[in-house]
Amino acid sequence: MRRAALNEIVGFNVRTASIIHPLLWLFALAAPVASQDPPASLASRALQVLRDRCSECHGAETRQSGLRLDTRRGIEKGGDFGPVVLPSRPQDSELLRRVTSTREDHAMPPNGDSLEEPEIAVLREWIAAGTPWPEGIEKEEAEEHDPRLDHWAWQPLHPAPPPAEIADSACDADVEGARNEIDLWVRHALASAQRTPSPPADRRTLIRRLYFDLHGLPPTPEEIAAFVADPDPQAYEKWVDRLLASPRYGERWARHWLDVVHYGDTHGYDKDQPRPDAWPYRDYVIRALNEDKPYPQFVEEQVAGDILFPDSRDGQEAIGMIAAGPWDLIGHLEVPESKTDGKIARHLDRDDMVANIIGTFCSVTIQCAQCHQHKFDPVTQEDYYSLQAVFAAIDRDVREYSPEPSIQRQFIDLRAQVDNLQQQRQRLADQLASSGGEALAQLDRRIRDAGRGASTVQGGYHSQIEGSANVTKWVQIDLGSPQAIEQVILHPCYDDFNGIGAGFGYPLRYQIEVAEDPDFRHRVTRIADMTASEVANPGITPQSHRGTARGQYVRVTVTQLVPRANDFIFALAEIEVLSPAGQNLALGKPVTALDSIEAPSRWTLGNAVDGKSPALASSDPQPLVEERKELLVAQGLSDLEKELREVQQKLAETEGRRKELQPLARVYAATTHKRGGQPRTIHLLARGNVLAPQHEVGPGTLSLLTMLPSRFELPPDHREGDRRVALARWLSDPRNPLTWRSIVNRVWQYHFGQGIVATPSDFGLMGSPPSHPQLLDALAHWFRDSGGSLKALHRKILCSATYRQASRPRAECLAVDAENRLLWRQTPRRLEAESIRDAVLAIAGTLDLTHGGPGWQDFKVERPEHSPHYEYSLANPEDRSLWRRSIYRFIVRSQTQPLMTVLDCADPSMRVERRNQSISPLQALALLNNGLMLVQAREFANRIRTEVGGDLRAQVAWAHELALGRAADTEEHARLVALGKVHGLENVCRALFNLNEFVWID
Length: 1002
Prior knowledge:
Layout: H1 2-11, H2 14-20, H3 22-30, H4 39-53, H5 72-77, H6 94-100, H7 117-128, H8 139-143, H9 181-192, H10 203-214, H11 221-229, H12 235-245, H13 247-260, H14 279-290, H15 295-308, H16 313-317, H17 329-334, H18 340-362, H19 381-390, E1 395-401, H20 405-449, E2 461-462, E3 473-491, E4 493-495, E5 501-504, E6 509-515, E7 525-530, E8 543-560, E9 562-563, E10 568-569, E11 571-572, E12 574-578, E13 591-593, H21 621-634, H22 638-659, E14 665-671, E15 683-685, E16 693-696, H23 720-732, H24 737-752, H25 773-785, H26 790-798, H27 811-814, H28 833-844, E17 860-862, E18 869-871, H29 898-902, H30 921-929, H31 931-948, H32 952-964, H33 970-983, H34 985-993, H35 996-999
Antiparallel strand pairs: 1-14, 2-11, 3-8, 3-12, 3-13, 4-5, 6-7, 6-8, 9-10, 15-16, 17-18
């Protein structure tokens, strides 16, 4: 009877019911109501409402906000800002919020044409019933097919057999025959455009091209001569193999990868503090490339190596990729996660992780979907936030590990034991504190810090200095969650400054309040009000204020500051917030303030809750210890105390064994220890607003690949790492076409100057279409099925006739394909900044090839403890420790290196898929006048004198051959000799460093 009556009210008599009892009307709006209609009938009624009242704006012809409400797929898909109907959850469905809203800017339909109450009731019942669909209505399903899903990039790999070789008559006589299937596809495209390939480059050009492509360094004259004179038909292939086997290969190609993942050695943002332990990830990439690690494993290690390969060095270092990008130190360390700015900082942090992983491995611009459905690609907000859920337990921090597998296994086991014992200790300590009450807790605090002397504890929280006493200041503590509070104790400071001593900075007038929100706008309880008259200096005696309250935030507000020396301040050594059981709820919790003087370790916000104050350090501990024993006996807690001592002893022994494993290595990478591996709850955010969370989202990935599941089916008790493992397996799945196309295209780009897809990090509808789609799929398919060897991929590309072409321009081809998309020649390319610098050092004979380790720093740091300033002008270009390869340079995000920047080095704050290639007068000026260039020109001249003696003509000849890999012709030699006679050999060397031929590969 009750259900029937309620259905009748909701369906037809809502107006009457609201007049009789308004609360019943409110209840009817909020509560999901089980319908008496059969599902098919209810579905038909709901669909009729949607078609009659909503399809004008959200139908087949018009889809405002990308939303269609007259078909099943349209309703399930939602609009630009996410789903509007959540089955079985009417109270959370945006559709119901809109049709019941009274706000003009929010209500739907607009213009006051509101739905009738019976219509709203039908929609509510339909959603509560799980959104059943009318039988027999299938026509719209086909109409709702998203044509964006037909885009080439989302399709499975479709390798086609290569076309037949083009007849010789179709090519110039000096064009060499096709060497592999790459040439067949390229020549087929050229023939379709009625164009022909170029002849092969000469051997000197080829060996120089190979060296710079694979090593980023020039070949020596001896190496050039050996290759040119080698009669072996396989000489070229053997040199390719030799260069790939060198450790110089990993150093060269790691730079490309680090550009894409925006690796840096500082955090970025306004503080831009250094990351001294970031470099192991850089060395991991170099090592993985040199070892030719199978690409699927390379992918999996960087996403979930600590879970899949926990005993290995690579597994620990590889996840540095997740943390490679910029990080907001203030937003994470100084702003609690509960505040809006803290939420935004962590949301943006996860956004960087998601964009880095998906953009790097899949070449998809996923980050566009954080505020709305992707405008161009079939990427939904649900996809985006499901990827955020994968990283919901992740933070960035230093990880300890051992490079030795056997020691790493012991370390993991001991760390697990320590974690378990720490949990036991905390449980017993909490039990003891709750059973012993406030008296025991207070004794424990006094014993902990007793005997040190008041004057030894100087510092705490310190406000900014003011010129007037009547300035309001406040400091507050976030307890993490609403807590019952019975007492707040303020501990005065002791400071020797200006003879003030005890009571330094203790306020003259103040109040203490508790609230449930950080802005103290709602449910504020005042525990103490000391604003009526001035408070006397309490010395170091703690000032206790009792008052029953419940809240998450405790704030001390000062209305009159105490004088210091011709100015006024506010300072406290410690703030204790005691629960009814006497537990200090404030210990170690986040602290914020109106302002603060940060001068660690003496004055800093965290000192206000570190458990240290002059009063706690001024008593004799022994009488307190005896008093504690008597209290335990009196309350029957001796056995509990004994058990706690045993656990503490085991913990000390275990931690001792763990410390015996030192020294452990450290890497700045993804970590879960801050949250104990507990993932944050991730909600879909309306318009990306952290203050507008919608429904909870579980872990998953892109739904545009229909051949793979997009949501991860994990058990309820799954670990954090299971989410990343699922994503790693999805990325490395042989069925995932994006992963294989993306890496093949990136390798191709670095050998030809541009990829088969010219937008290497955007395979979407707004990216460039592939110039040779069949070739891309053929290479990706071959690469995947042959084991994912990057060196094998290099070899296939480098050994093709297409790569070996000359780079000379041809007017008839330039007229139709100036960008060389058809690959009728090899594209001339300027050396990257690192290769120019390294080539200068190599030719000068000063290049230090020391491998790996911390980055060298060509700057001096000013104000290192606050906001470091990295001053490159203060570095000494004569310092030989800076003459290492550029891959090992310490990379600063906020202040980039001037020489490298002017030569188009990648901005480490951005993911750089393809570097700019500019030409400017500044580049010539830098190569002529930069301090490093001047020093290296001198060193180059010294090398020449040592190797060929004092004859200027011989010196110039040898310098030219070292720098450019060929002998100078008569005119070149004469002009350089003339320059040397007037300005000296050093300036001849400077001129050689500035030649176009020096900085261009071809």
